[in-house]
Every structure is written in C-alpha cells, then in structure tokens.
Automatic annotation (TrEMBL):
The record's note on its domains: A pair of annexin repeats may form one binding site for calcium and phospholipid.
Residue stretches of biased makeup (Low complexity): 21-42, 101-116, 155-170
Full protein name: Annexin
Biased composition (Pro residues): 1-20, 117-132, 141-154
Alphabetized GO MF terms: calcium ion binding; calcium-dependent phospholipid binding; phosphatidylserine binding
Region annotation Disordered: where it falls in the sequence: 1-215
Homology family: Belongs to the annexin family.
Pfam families linked to this entry: Annexin
Record's GO cellular component terms: cytoplasm; nucleus; plasma membrane; vesicle membrane
Record key words, sorted: Annexin, Calcium, Calcium/phospholipid-binding, Repeat
Compositional bias segments (type: Gly residues): 51-64
Domain of life: Eukaryota
Length: 524
C-alpha cells in the first residue's frame, strides 16, 4: 500500500496514488507570484504520506473549544471550506504542507510586511534539498513530476510498506519484512528511535541569530550610539528617540551598538537606560538590549528564582527550541549565574514534571531535517494511544519521552495521524488525560508542531486576557517575536483570524504611554 507522492493531494483514506501529476485545487496559488491577501489559511497540512484527520468534530490543529488551556479555542469560521480550522476533517486538499522554521531562524519569507497569514512552505518529508540553509524555502515549489517518475535530485525517494522498491537508492530505509499490521516494537522509556540502515544523517539545525557567542554583524553603529546618548543627555529623556533607535536593531547588531556606545562615550548603554526610564517601558528597552540569548537566560533566572516557579515564563523559553539553541542557553546560563540550569530546574520542579523538563533540557530531539518515516510515526501514534486512552490512568513518562524527542515536523505528523486513526484530536487527549503544568507543556509542544504561529497568537492573547495584563509575559513574547519579522507577520495574521481583531489595536487597548509606543513599534 503506497503513500501519495510528495506533492500530491491528501486523500481521506490510504490508497493507490493518482494516475497522473499533481492537480492544483481551485483556490491554489497561481503559477506566478504569491497568493492574494485572503487571510489566515489555517494550520499547516500534515507531512506527505498522511491522510487527513478523521471525523472527530474538533478543529484541526488541536485548538479545541471548551478546553482548559489558554483563553479558549477558535470558533468555526467561513474559512473552513478551504483552509482554516475545518470541522469535518477538511484540510486544504492538494496544498503542499508549509515548513515551520525554528524560533529566531532567518527566513527569506515570500510574504511582505502586513501580508496575510499562511505559514511558510514546508518541504516534503525526508531530508531537505542540499542548500546552505535548509530552512529557507520560497514559494511556489517546483512543479511536481507525474506519479511514477524518478524523484528530483536531492529529494527523498518514495517509501512503501512491505513492498521493496525495484532498485534501492541511497536515502531509503531498507524494506520492512512482514506486514504493516505488525508495527515495530515499542521503544523503552527515553530511548530515541533507531536509525535504519541507509537513512541519511539529519543535518543539525543551526543556532538562531544571536545564539552564537561572539557572532556580530559588521556594521557601523556610531550614529545610533550617538542618538541614544543625545536622547539621555542632560535634563529629561527623549523616549521617542530611544524607541525609534532600539526597536529597529536586529539581533546581531545589538552587541555592536553597546560597544560603540562604550567606546565613543565611555558609558554603559544598559546602565544609562536603566537610570533614565522606569516601569514596563524600562523592561521593554532592557529586554531588547540584552539580545535574544541573554534575554532567554534572564527570563529563565526570573522564572526559577524565589519562592515558586513562573511556569508560563519557563514554558515560553524552553518549549519548541532547537538543540543548538538549548545548548547555547545552558552554557550562557552557567556563564552568567555560575549555576547549572538543569540542576536549578530539578530543584524548582518535582515528580514527573521535573522528569519531563530533564528530557527537554537534554537537547536530544530529532532535527527538523530528519525524515518523517511513516512506520515510526504510526508506532508513536499506537504507543501514545496505549499510554493514554487505551488504559485507566496515563503512562505519562512514555508520552513525555516521545514528544520531547521528536521534531516539530514529526509532532505534526503524529497529531494528524492520531486524529485520522482514532477520530480524536491529540490535544484533546492530553487535556483529558493530564493536568496541571504537565498538561500545559504537552499541549504547547503539540501546538508548536501543528501551528507555531497560532500557538504564539493564543499566548499573546492569554497575556492580555482577564483582569489585569500579565505585562512581563507580554513583553517577553513581543520582544522575542520582533527579532523574527517574517514569523511576526504570520502571528499577526493568525491572531486576526482567531480573535477577529487587529493585534496592534489589542495591545494599544491594554497598555499606555511610552510602554504602549514601544510595544507597538516592535509589532509594526
């Protein structure tokens, strides 16, 4: 039984491939250029080789109504016919699934500023084409070959269950003996999936911009340093000038302006800002001046110090991060506070939640370039069901070991395959089977895989919803988003679809003064 070709549509049932090449659906992108501004088109489709979700009655992507996580779930929208959250298992038929880049990764986004959502283009499952940066993909993709034609150079060949290919090529797993009805043996707790002979080695995801110590841009920031000094010199402070200069600095230029300020004026820029401004406006500017890596380290220390743990802030920093970024954060935390991050997390958490974060901090998850093998995905789906709905009382650590070891693309495949097989959203399963902090973490991991932009949009609303604004969470989330402008535009589009209002207008309604102007400048 074959899976459909990499660029084909997704049939409702596994079955024979179409007898001809890929046919674009009625609302597909035109052959030239980018789609018209039609709003958010919904969460990414599953990786190739997986049929669409079943008739679970829950919106695809895992955002459920009436759930306990976040400020609620999205109501049905008119966009459910082609994209959006379909209530009857309807994905964007035939639409190639987009790629979700890791946080902070540079992106040559095809979407201009204020462009409507959809998420960026995703490669077919398997190793990405050989390029300097596999994350940088642009739309439209190359025209797919008709079914049966040999795959393009560098593309992962088509896989089949039980039926060996006529000629084995490099990059294909060996033929599976036996039938599909006999899935691989369940993995022991915490063990990564075995690598099949012939499976190409996944290339490590590079660190996000600003996460390599000593990595700086070669630019002259003397003018910006002088503007900052002029804004704070003498009586009074020109807050508008500070906002104009500091909110536009990319991550790799932050060390340059701080060094230029020190050399030209013999002063420390962060120290001067701390003396000149105060309150949440001060928090915004200092969060920018720390840069992405040191801001994460500062947030981790804030989440762990004192009585109790700031679980939301801890989740915000650690969930969904690449192995390279996780290793950089652990090293920077030790260098800054002379303490071990994993030890501090173990001291603050307890029981199985502590074990879950130990798995996350081990930085051993699959890289995003790792192939999505249908056999492995189906084995994970079966094991998750066995540990949750198929028994009384969840076998929590096995589920934690699976999700903490898989890449976002693999988690997306698991979520779609689970709903197709058991007619129930994986997010709903976790909400029903888990509770407390562990439930929050597992749901956030699923959302990162299925639709990261919508996950971030929901988290932003959660920081503003209810009585009083969670200002420290709002600042942390907006500062992190503004360092990745392409992803920020996706989040703004997802927010508008989800809440039927503009994100900037929502922020203006919750904040005021220089604090409001600084946040709005980062979002624009």
């Amino acid at each position: 039984m074959s899976y459909p070709p990499p660029h084909g549509s997704y049939p409702q049932q596994y079955g024979p491939p179409p007898p001809q090449g890929y046919q674009y659906p009625p609302q597909a992108y035109p052959s030239q250029g980018y789609p018209p501004q039609q709003g958010y088109s919904g969460p990414p489709a599953p990786p190739q080789g997986y049929a669409q979700g079943g008739q679970s009655g829950a919106p695809h992507g895992g955002y459920l109504q009436g759930a306990t996580i976040g400020p609620g779930r999205p109501p049905p929208s008119p966009q459910q016919q082609h994209g959006g959250y379909a209530t009857q298992g309807q994905y964007n038929h035939g639409y190639p699934p987009p790629q979700q880049p890791a946080y902070g990764a540079p992106s040559h986004s095809p979407y201009p500023q204020q462009q409507a959502y959809p998420p960026p283009q995703q490669q077919p499952y398997g190793p990405p084409p050989h390029s300097p940066n596999p994350q940088q993909q642009t739309y439209p993709p190359s025209q797919p070959s008709p079914y049966g034609a040999p795959p393009p150079q560098g593309q992962y060949p088509q896989q089949q269950y039980s039926v060996p290919p006529a000629s084995q090529q490099y990059g294909q797993p060996p033929p599976q003996h036996g039938t599909y009805n006999a899935p691989p043996q369940a993995l022991p707790y915490g063990a990564p999936p075995p690598q099949s002979y012939g499976t190409p080695q996944a290339r490590p995801t590079p660190p996000s911009p600003g996460y390599v110590p000593g990595q700086v841009a070669r630019v002259d920031m003397s003018h910006q340093a002088d503007e900052c000094r002029k804004a704070m010199k003498g009586l009074g402070t020109d807050e508008a000038a500070l906002i104009r200069v500091l909110t536009r600095i990319p991550p790799l230029e932050i060390p340059i302006i701080k060094e230029a300020f020190r050399q030209r004026h013999g002063r420390d820029l962060e120290h001067d800002v701390q003396k000149e401004v105060s309150g949440h406006f001060e928090l915004c500017l200092l969060s920018i001046l720390r840069g992405p890596l040191q801001q994460d380290v500062w947030c981790l220390n804030k989440a762990l110090k004192g009585a109790g743990t700031d679980e939301d802030l801890l989740n915000e920093v650690l969930i969904g991060r690449s192995n390279a970024d996780m290793q950089a954060m652990k090293q920077a935390y030790h260098h800054t506070y002379h303490r071990n991050l994993e030890h501090d997390v173990r001291d603050d958490l307890s029981a199985k939640t502590e074990r879950l974060f130990s798995m996350i901090l081990s930085a051993t998850r699959q890289e995003e370039s790792a192939p999505v093998l249908p056999q492995s995905i189906d084995a994970d789906v079966t094991e998750i069901h066995r540990c949750t709905e198929a028994r009384i009382g969840a076998e929590q650590l096995t589920v934690c070991a699976i999700l903490s070891n898989r890449s976002d693309t693999q988690i997306r495949a698991i979520a779609h395959a689970y709903e197709h097989k058991y007619r129930r959203s994986l997010e709903m399963v976790f909400i029903h089977e888990f509770s407390g902090h562990m439930e929050d973490v597992l749901v956030q991991m699923v959302r990162c895989g299925t639709d990261r932009a919508m996950r971030d949009a929901i988290n932003l609303e959660h920081a503003m919803a209810g009585a009083g604004t969670k200002d420290h969470m709002l600042v942390a989330r907006i500062v992190k988003l503004h360092w990745n402008p392409a992803h920020l535009q996706q989040v703004k589009g997802a927010y508008k679809v989800r809440y039927k209002r503009d994100l900037i207008g929502r922020v203006r309604g919750e904040t005021s003064g220089d604090y409001e102007r600084c946040l709005v400048a980062m979002l624009q």
